[in-house]
Amino acid sequence: METIDNLLQGFATALTPVNLLYALLGVAVGTAIGVLPGIGPAMAVALLLPITYGLDPVGAFIMFAGIYYGGMYGGSTTAILINTPGEAASVITAVEGNKMAKRGRAAQALATAAIGSFVAGTIGTLMLVFLAPVMVGLALTFGAAEYFAVMLLAFVAACSVLGSSRVRGFASLGIGLAIGLIGLDPTTGQSRLSYGIPQLADGIDVVIVAVGIFAVGEALWVASRLRRTPAEVIPVGRVWMGREDWKRSWKPWLRGSFIGFPFGALPAGGSELPTFLSYMLERRLSKHRAEFGSGAIEGVAGPEATNNSSAAGVLVPMLTLGLPTTAVSAVMLTAFQQYGLQPGPLLFEREPELVWGLIASLFIGNTMLLALNLPLAPMWARLLHIPRPYLYAGILFFASLGMYAVNASPLDLVLLLLLGGLGFMMRRFGLPVIPVIIGTILGPMAELQLRRALQISDGDLAGLVTSPLTIGVYAIVAVLLLWPMVRFLRGRRRPAAPVSAGERTGEEAAG
Q1: 164 in a domain, yes or no?
Q2: SS3 content of the chain, % helix, strand, coil (to 5)
Q3: C-alpha to C-alpha distance for 334 and 442, rounded to whole angstroms
């Protein structure tokens, strides 16, 4: 009952005219950003971080949440119309969605994506409402050892799941941890990795790291690879669905809602894996298997619902534990620190207006997105005609202007460009960028909790394993680290299949 009361108070906060305007602005910008290939919600939030320094925290986070949900909506438009996902989570949508568009069913594909996103977003937000207080109660029992163990799990999971290899993932995490070490040691006061530059005594602002790695690095990378001519876009008429389309879509929407949320709440669970699992499940359960590969509507409805449900799940560990599991949550965690707030169980006690206003705004933003996406889909499609040089030049300009306006420091611009170059090189050599942000944000926090745990145990390492929770978390870490080695050894020990006499005779005859 207390949860319902808190949610109603959140609606009272979110339904004020100013916050409704922020929500509308967020979903509109998020959808437009999601439509543009190569520009995701993480980059949009990163670009807006410097601009929102003077805004009220509640309004700023309502706008960021709108951008997040809007970006997940908009990514399906490019996936369906030009076979170029605007977001990584929309890759699976392109498999069947673009085939539907080429068959003249672009309107139906966009409609099932939009309605499915609304249904799954609403169900996922409801699960967030009732699960978040449970997680807060659990987090209040955490000590220094438990927090360090969970952060270590986040490090290992991010490096194990993201990127093309674990080595690259851990290399990326190492870069983030090194950036997080820059500045004065909080315990001894000694300077670390500042190279005698006084401006680095407080470390590198995480906002600079986020904007440099995501916005500048991504803009440089995409601009260096994409063509300068607009993509060929399939025309879109009135977005609608027939009775048969509704009949084939509603079950995938519901299944996708319950598949995506748990994966979003896991460290580095993300949305790519659950959308793939949803696609495979719908392909197995569908009565129209023959259509898969040529434009099955279930292959759009299920993955899109999964995608948006996982977006709500991502907010659970970020708000209750302060752990980012995706690029957007990492940048939003940066925004919390920008306002002097630390996500975690105490945030629900100290800033209930902010937390519950943010959660309530997800329901409002979700409704706004449905109203925007169904009638305005043809207009969003026109954004795909923007020339790429103008688009990415504008991103670089506004990123640089926003960072310089914060402190009016030329060093911030130099750091921004250096980090943008680093982000470009990481993409060039296949290093995932999310572990860098996770390492930069969580690295100092993990160091602080590790020192506290060792101080409590008087330097005894056994003090890091003080409860069943820590033992369980370290067991999961061990499995994540050792499982690839076990699979490799099992593959080497597996004997080769015997060759039959008939096959041997055939081979000798061929020879």
Answers
A1: no
A2: 75, 0, 20
A3: 11
Is 444 among the domain residues? no
Say if 431 falls within a structural domain: yes
Find the angle CA(472)-CA(473)-CA(475) to the nearest 5 degrees.
65
Q: pLDDT in tens for each of the 511 residues of the chain?
A: 688 888 899 999 999 999 999 999 989 888 887 777 656 677 777 777 777 777 788 988 898 888 888 877 777 777 777 666 656 667 678 778 888 887 878 888 888 888 888 999 899 999 989 888 887 777 767 788 888 888 888 788 777 655 567 888 889 889 999 998 898 887 777 888 888 888 888 888 777 887 788 778 877 887 787 655 455 555 565 667 788 888 888 899 999 888 888 877 765 555 666 887 788 888 888 887 778 877 888 888 888 898 888 888 888 888 888 877 777 787 888 888 878 888 888 888 888 899 999 999 999 998 998 888 777 777 776 766 777 777 778 778 877 877 776 677 888 889 989 999 998 999 888 888 878 887 887 888 888 888 888 888 888 888 888 888 888 889 988 888 887 777 777 777 665 555 555 444 444 444 4
What is the total count of domains within the chain? 1
Which residue range forms the structural domain that includes residue 219? 2-143+205-435
In a domain, 498, yes or no: no
The predicted model scores a pTM of 0.71
The structure tokens listed for 259 are 């598949």
CB 332 within 8 A of CB 68: yes
